[in-house]
Specification:
With 117 residues, the protein is of the alpha+beta class. It is built from 4 helices and 4 strands; from the N terminus they run αβββααβα. It has helices spanning 4-19, 56-59, 68-84, 102-112, and strands at 28-33, 38-44, 49-55, 91-93.
């Protein structure tokens, strides 16, 4: 049985995904946040293909949890990979999470790394 919090996030997520779609020219940057990790991937929805991805596991797999600074570093790493793959502009999909804390730090890191959104 799903909690009230996860059901609320799911409704918000569906509402966002109705409007946000990644194309070949401007793919979607999707964020997933668990209690211990943060993951981000750049997705071309027209092909149904993940172009690049980055996670806090790549930075330090031994850490028990992720802080705001780690989330920013994941954003920087994702931007570096995306630029190497030829992606410079994306649309941001916060995936139902509030644009605050770790999600905001990841977005700021991606912008600092050179992605435009």
């Amino acid at each position: 049985m799903a909690s009230v919090k996860s059901e609320r996030r799911q409704r918000i997520k569906y509402r966002i995904r109705k409007k946000v779609e990644g194309t070949s020219e401007k793919p979607r940057l999707s964020v997933f946040r668990s209690n211990a990790r943060i993951y981000a991937q750049v997705i071309d929805d027209t092909k149904g293909q993940t172009l690049v991805s980055a996670s806090s596991l790549e930075l330090d797999a031994t850490k028990a949890s992720v802080n705001v600074e780690d989330a920013k570093n994941v954003g920087l790493k994702l931007a570096e990979k995306a630029l190497a793959a030829g992606v410079s502009a994306v649309v941001f999909d916060r995936n139902g999470y509030l644009y605050h804390g770790k999600v905001k730090a990841l977005a700021d890191g991606a912008r600092e790394g050179g992605l435009k959104f």
